[in-house]
Amino acid sequence: MELSIFSVVYKDKPLGEVLDNFKQKGVMHVELGSGGFIGKDHCNPRALLKDKNELRKFKDMFDSRDMSIATLSCHGNPVHPQKDLAAVYHQDIKESIDLASELGVERIVTFSGCPGDSDGSKYPNWPVSPFPEDFQTVYKWQ
User: What's the CA gap between 65 and 69, in Å, rounded?
Assistant: First the structure.
Protein backbone atom coordinates (compact mmCIF):
# COMPACT_ATOMS: atom_id res chain seq x y z
CA MET A 1 0.00 0.00 0.00
CA GLU A 2 1.23 3.46 -0.88
CA LEU A 3 0.11 6.35 1.31
CA SER A 4 0.01 10.07 0.77
CA ILE A 5 -0.09 12.73 3.48
CA PHE A 6 -1.81 16.09 3.16
CA SER A 7 0.91 18.68 3.74
CA VAL A 8 -1.63 21.32 4.80
CA VAL A 9 -1.75 19.81 8.28
CA TYR A 10 1.84 21.10 8.64
CA LYS A 11 1.27 24.46 6.92
CA ASP A 12 3.11 26.31 9.71
CA LYS A 13 6.37 24.58 8.73
CA PRO A 14 8.49 25.09 5.58
CA LEU A 15 7.79 22.57 2.82
CA GLY A 16 11.36 21.20 2.86
CA GLU A 17 11.10 20.41 6.56
CA VAL A 18 7.71 18.76 6.02
CA LEU A 19 9.05 16.62 3.19
CA ASP A 20 12.04 15.54 5.28
CA ASN A 21 9.68 14.52 8.08
CA PHE A 22 7.49 12.55 5.68
CA LYS A 23 10.54 10.87 4.12
CA GLN A 24 11.79 9.76 7.56
CA LYS A 25 8.42 8.12 8.14
CA GLY A 26 8.52 6.29 4.80
CA VAL A 27 5.88 8.42 3.09
CA MET A 28 6.67 8.81 -0.59
CA HIS A 29 3.64 10.74 -1.87
CA VAL A 30 2.32 14.16 -0.86
CA GLU A 31 -0.99 15.93 -1.35
CA LEU A 32 -0.41 19.68 -1.56
CA GLY A 33 -2.87 22.47 -0.88
CA SER A 34 -2.93 24.78 -3.89
CA GLY A 35 -5.66 27.29 -3.11
CA GLY A 36 -9.14 27.94 -1.88
CA PHE A 37 -10.01 27.59 1.79
CA ILE A 38 -6.88 25.55 2.55
CA GLY A 39 -4.41 28.10 1.27
CA LYS A 40 -1.22 27.99 -0.73
CA ASP A 41 1.38 27.75 2.03
CA HIS A 42 3.37 24.96 0.36
CA CYS A 43 2.28 25.41 -3.24
CA ASN A 44 1.35 28.69 -4.90
CA PRO A 45 0.40 27.83 -8.48
CA ARG A 46 0.39 31.42 -9.74
CA ALA A 47 3.92 32.08 -8.46
CA LEU A 48 5.25 28.75 -9.72
CA LEU A 49 3.69 29.16 -13.16
CA LYS A 50 5.10 32.69 -13.43
CA ASP A 51 8.72 31.74 -12.60
CA LYS A 52 10.20 28.68 -14.33
CA ASN A 53 13.25 28.80 -12.06
CA GLU A 54 11.05 28.60 -8.94
CA LEU A 55 9.07 25.79 -10.58
CA ARG A 56 12.32 23.85 -11.14
CA LYS A 57 13.37 24.37 -7.50
CA PHE A 58 9.93 23.21 -6.41
CA LYS A 59 10.18 20.03 -8.50
CA ASP A 60 13.70 19.44 -7.18
CA MET A 61 12.43 19.44 -3.60
CA PHE A 62 10.51 16.26 -4.42
CA ASP A 63 12.97 14.69 -6.85
CA SER A 64 15.88 15.05 -4.43
CA ARG A 65 13.91 13.08 -1.84
CA ASP A 66 12.61 10.52 -4.34
CA MET A 67 9.07 11.65 -3.54
CA SER A 68 6.10 12.47 -5.74
CA ILE A 69 3.14 14.81 -5.66
CA ALA A 70 0.07 12.60 -5.48
CA THR A 71 -2.39 15.42 -6.03
CA LEU A 72 -2.98 19.12 -5.77
CA SER A 73 -5.91 20.12 -3.56
CA CYS A 74 -7.82 23.30 -4.19
CA HIS A 75 -10.92 23.52 -1.99
CA GLY A 76 -12.68 26.73 -2.91
CA ASN A 77 -16.26 27.60 -3.76
CA PRO A 78 -16.44 28.57 -7.45
CA VAL A 79 -20.24 28.86 -7.26
CA HIS A 80 -20.22 31.16 -4.22
CA PRO A 81 -23.12 33.64 -4.42
CA GLN A 82 -20.69 36.56 -4.03
CA LYS A 83 -19.35 36.73 -7.57
CA ASP A 84 -16.02 38.28 -6.55
CA LEU A 85 -15.30 35.36 -4.19
CA ALA A 86 -16.50 32.84 -6.77
CA ALA A 87 -14.07 34.34 -9.31
CA VAL A 88 -11.11 34.00 -6.90
CA TYR A 89 -11.94 30.36 -6.18
CA HIS A 90 -12.46 29.65 -9.88
CA GLN A 91 -9.05 31.18 -10.69
CA ASP A 92 -7.40 29.10 -7.95
CA ILE A 93 -8.81 25.93 -9.49
CA LYS A 94 -7.74 26.95 -13.00
CA GLU A 95 -4.20 27.72 -11.83
CA SER A 96 -4.05 24.41 -9.94
CA ILE A 97 -5.03 22.57 -13.12
CA ASP A 98 -2.39 24.45 -15.13
CA LEU A 99 0.27 23.71 -12.52
CA ALA A 100 -0.69 20.05 -12.36
CA SER A 101 -0.15 19.87 -16.10
CA GLU A 102 3.32 21.44 -15.76
CA LEU A 103 4.23 19.03 -12.95
CA GLY A 104 2.80 15.91 -14.59
CA VAL A 105 0.36 15.47 -11.69
CA GLU A 106 -2.67 13.52 -12.86
CA ARG A 107 -5.07 14.25 -9.99
CA ILE A 108 -6.60 17.36 -8.50
CA VAL A 109 -8.92 17.39 -5.52
CA THR A 110 -11.42 20.22 -5.64
CA PHE A 111 -14.53 21.29 -3.86
CA SER A 112 -17.66 21.64 -5.95
CA GLY A 113 -18.91 24.48 -3.80
CA CYS A 114 -22.37 25.54 -2.87
CA PRO A 115 -24.44 28.45 -4.17
CA GLY A 116 -26.82 30.60 -2.18
CA ASP A 117 -30.47 29.74 -1.72
CA SER A 118 -31.81 32.63 -3.84
CA ASP A 119 -30.76 35.23 -6.40
CA GLY A 120 -29.99 37.74 -3.64
CA SER A 121 -27.98 35.41 -1.42
CA LYS A 122 -24.70 36.62 0.00
CA TYR A 123 -23.64 33.36 1.61
CA PRO A 124 -23.64 29.73 0.52
CA ASN A 125 -26.53 27.55 1.58
CA TRP A 126 -25.05 24.35 3.00
CA PRO A 127 -27.89 21.83 2.86
CA VAL A 128 -27.53 18.58 4.68
CA SER A 129 -29.77 15.66 3.87
CA PRO A 130 -29.63 12.13 5.23
CA PHE A 131 -29.83 9.05 3.10
CA PRO A 132 -33.36 7.76 2.56
CA GLU A 133 -34.61 5.73 5.51
CA ASP A 134 -35.01 2.65 3.38
CA PHE A 135 -31.65 2.95 1.65
CA GLN A 136 -31.43 -0.68 0.54
CA THR A 137 -34.85 -0.60 -1.14
CA VAL A 138 -34.17 2.67 -2.92
CA TYR A 139 -30.88 1.40 -4.35
CA LYS A 140 -32.01 -2.22 -4.65
CA TRP A 141 -29.13 -3.49 -2.55
CA GLN A 142 -29.45 -6.85 -0.93
Answer: 12
